[in-house]
Design goal:
Layout lengths: L26 H4 L3 H9 L22 H10 L6 H11 L6 H13 L3 E6 L9 H13 L5 E7 L9 H12 L4 E7 H4 L6 H13 L4 E2 L2 H10 L10 E5 L2 E2 L8 E4 L8 H8 L15 E6 L9 E3 L8 H8 L1
Parallel strand pairs: 1-2, 1-7, 2-3, 4-5, 7-8, 8-9
Antiparallel strand pairs: 3-5, 5-6
């Protein structure tokens, strides 16, 4: 029988704490940290790599809090959703996923619009443009009549004024296959602290087709830059064509959200999809078929493309077993 440990063992995670010998731009090294200095000098220690392949991300991809916590809790390298999704696109399995194809079938049957909503850019923390482009390709293969893009601008996991380049590239790559229907910063569409007025601005633009408007996504971005507003904080706007919204959501349409990280998508998806939602008035909400890239909340009951996977013998289980 394994001997029990008489004294407690505590796993303490210092979010954002890293090691680099140079003090230039290094807040940790420049700070006064007597407790840390004492532990570093006297206790056994080692260094861990918290990015790239070491934590189940593509080589060169920065880590983040969710990735770090998942690997620490598992006690092993965990293949991240960014890698899983990328591998499925490369293999072609992505284009056979039931959750996606059912959404496309819904749109075909109703001669409706497939709405794609998510974060723009290649930050890789919440989403990735490659996944959006794969969904546009899927829609073409599935003969979807219309595809509308609802773009959330980053500026937090990417540079504050990087949206202009990302959106220009997306417009070029999706020309003739999809149109931008709404656009705005993640500060609104990806709030996670129940600040519902923010979520409602995104909802109004994407679902209702009401609010500030623009007839040119590029002009929308540059106009905000001229006013000193960076990507994250751009107030959501409806994209107009001939005086009408490009694609407000209608009965029989389908929505696919392409963010793979769940925490900042729960609020907007609740507003779009859940009957019991009460964050603000959605009595006029159309009947929509909603699918998500990953499981945002197991209580949502929505079709999910990449289901969560379980692991045996995680750190907590091993510690419990040995007492």
């Amino acid at each position: 029988m394994a001997s029990r440990v008489d004294r407690p063992v505590v796993l303490v995670v210092l979010d954002g704490w890293g090691y680099r010998e140079s003090t230039v731009g290094n807040a940790v090294a420049q700070a006064r940290t007597p407790t840390w200095d004492r532990l570093w000098a006297r206790a056994p220690r080692t260094l861990l790599d918290a990015s790239g392949l070491a934590v189940g991300l593509p080589e060169g991809q920065m880590g983040n809090s969710e990735v770090g916590h998942l690997n620490l809790g598992a006690g092993r390298v965990v293949m991240q959703d960014l890698v899983r999704i990328g591998a499925s696109i490369k293999s072609g399995a992505f284009y056979q996923i039931d959750a996606f194809r059912q959404a496309c079938a819904q749109v075909r049957t109703n001669d409706g619009t497939l709405h794609l909503l998510g974060l723009v850019g290649d930050g890789g923390v919440h989403g990735h443009d490659d996944h959006l482009l794969a969904l546009v390709e899927l829609a073409a293969r599935e003969r979807v009549p219309r595809v509308a893009l609802h773009l959330l601008l980053d500026g937090r996991d990417t540079l504050p004024k990087s949206a202009l380049g990302y959106v220009r590239a997306l417009l070029a790559k999706t020309a003739g296959r999809a149109e931008v229907a709404s656009i705005g910063g993640r500060y609104f569409g990806m709030d996670r602290d129940q600040r519902w007025p923010r979520t409602q601005k995104c909802y109004d633009a994407a679902v209702r087709g009401i609010g500030p408007s623009t007839d040119d996504p590029i002009a929308f971005i540059t106009g905000n830059y001229d006013r000193g507003v960076t990507d994250e904080f751009m107030e959501p706007a409806v994209v107009m064509r001939d005086g009408h919204p490009v694609a407000a959501m209608r009965d029989g349409d389908a929505v696919i959200t392409w963010n793979f990280r769940s925490d900042r998508m729960r609020q907007i998806v609740r507003a779009i999809a859940l009957k019991e939602f009460d964050g603000f008035d959605v009595d006029d909400r159309p009947r929509l078929h909603v699918a998500t890239m990953t499981q945002y909340d197991q209580t949502f009951g929505l079709p999910v493309a990449f289901e969560p996977f379980s692991m045996a013998k995680i750190v907590a289980e091993v510690l419990e077993d040995v007492g």
